Amino acid sequence: MSKEWLKHAVIYQIYPQSFFDTNGDGIGDINGISEKLDYIRELGCDLLWINPCFDSPFHDAGYDVRDYKKVAPRYGTNDDLRRLFREAHGRGIRVLLDLVPGHTSEEHPWFIASSKAEHNEYSNRYIWTDSCFRGAEGMPFIGGERERNGCYILNFFKCQPALNYGFQNPKENWQLPPTHPDCVATLEAMKDVMRFWLSMGCDGFRVDMAASLIKLDDENRTGIKALWKNVRSMLDREFPDAVLISEWSDPPKAIDAGFDIDFYLHSAGNGCSALLRDYQCHGNGKPGGEDHSYFKKGGKGDVTPFLEEFCPWYEKTKGRGYISFQTGTHDTERARWSLTEDELKIAYAVLFTLPGIPSVYYGDEIGMRYLEVPTKEGGYNRTGSRTPMQWKKAPNLGFSEGTKESLYLPVDSADDAPTAEEQMRDPDSLWNTVKRLLALRRAEDDLSADAPFEVLFARKGSPLFVYRRGSLTIAVNPSAEPVSEKVCGAEKIVYAMGNASVKQGTIELGPQSFLIAR
Ligand code: GLC
Ligand code: CA
Question: What number does the ligand 1 atom closest to the CA of 60 have?
Answer without folding.
Answer: 10
